[in-house]
Design brief:
The protein has 204 residues and is mainly alpha-helical. It is built from 6 helices and no strands. 81% of the residues lie in helices and 0% in strands.
């Protein structure tokens, strides 16, 4: 089932690339005309959230042993997986609406908005569920412990590095530089985690 997980990863990367392209277009328009269409911000945020959602879905599938059981999850795993997706979708939607209602014109990226803390908690929730799923899978498939010993630290870096970066740069680095650093870290994390997981999955 490697081809399925690889395809989903590449779809997520494509969504991330579209998001970054839209955001770069918005910044370019801001530089040349001192105006950035709000629609571009919204479109970039939608593609960014979609990319994160696709990545988390794929990571959680691997954590639950999708490649081990050839996609045939049992009833309990399906319920857990579906419950997580429901919470994540509803939470992301609610935070997106909150962000659109409370957007500060002076903020430079979404994590500076009021909903930013909510997105962080949602990310940490995804991390905890993914780790729990990994432990569940290792318990039932001991022969895969080597793969998950690589997978868990890798996925943890993806989940935790961005919130830590935002906390570190907030208040220390000004305006545009702060946004550039956060976006650069986010892009690097996506590429790093995707490539690392694909390589480790292929070797497993």
């Amino acid at each position: 089932m490697l081809h399925t997980t690889a395809l989903v990863f590449f779809i997520g990367i494509m969504f991330r690339a579209i998001s970054l392209t839209v955001q770069m277009l918005g910044w370019w328009l801001l530089v040349i005309s001192d105006e950035k269409p709000p629609a571009l911000d919204m479109l970039g945020a939608v593609f960014s959230l979609a990319a994160n959602f696709i990545f988390i879905c794929n990571a959680l599938s691997i954590a639950f042993g999708y490649t081990i059981v050839c996609g045939h999850f049992n009833f309990e795993v399906c319920n857990l997986y579906g419950g997580f997706l429901l919470v994540y979708i509803v939470g992301s939607g609610a935070l997106g609406v909150l962000d659109s209602w409370t957007t500060d014109a002076d903020r430079f990226f979404v994590y500076e908005a009021g909903a930013g803390l909510g997105f962080f908690f949602l990310r940490l929730f995804g991390w905890s569920v993914t780790l729990a799923a990994c432990l569940f899978t290792v318990f039932h498939h001991r022969r895969k412990i080597r793969f998950y010993s690589v997978f868990m630290p890798t996925i943890s870096v993806w989940y935790l590095a961005l919130p830590l970066t935002v906390l570190l740069v907030k208040g220390c680095i000004v305006d545009y530089d702060r946004a550039r650093i956060v976006y650069a870290v986010e892009l690097f994390l996506d590429l790093f985690a995707s490539v690392a997981i694909l390589v480790s999955t292929n070797r497993s």
